[in-house]
Amino acid sequence: MSQPVWFITGVSNGFGLLLTLRALKAGHRVVGTLRNKAKHTNAVQQIEAAGAEVIEMDMTESQESIRSKVKAVGRIDYLINNAGYAIFGCLEQITYVWPRTPGHGFRRLKLTFVVSQRE
């Protein structure tokens, strides 16, 4: 059987980075995403040195852009949508940004993934 393929968003730190390294240690193939490779060079170097591919992908990109990146991976056995962000400040000073958040991106990536698996 071929090695399982993981597609993990938000691999620049925290859970995404840890899960990427664990899956690689188990001998699995991992494609990890983050918004800006230049901003997270240490994480990118660590992940690539362990054997994974890292691509830039922002969850607010166009549906077609996300779709082309998912399709380029080929078979995906595990989709881990871990991308996130933080807003800092007093609650009453934070403006409404939901359409540009990972919640919106999550639905778009999930839809893209499901459609790509049917093709």
UniProtKB/TrEMBL annotation:
Keywords: Oxidoreductase, Signal. The keyword Oxidoreductase applies. Pfam families: adh_short. The keyword Signal applies. Residues 1-16 form the signal peptide. GO terms for molecular function: oxidoreductase activity. It comes from the Eukaryota. Belongs to the short-chain dehydrogenases/reductases (SDR) family. PANTHER family: SHORT CHAIN DEHYDROGENASE (PTHR43976), SHORT-CHAIN DEHYDROGENASE_REDUCTASE FAMILY PROTEIN (PTHR43976:SF16). This is Putative short chain oxidoreductase protein. It comes from Rosellinia necatrix (White root-rot fungus). The lineage of its organism: Eukaryota, Fungi, Dikarya, Ascomycota, Pezizomycotina.
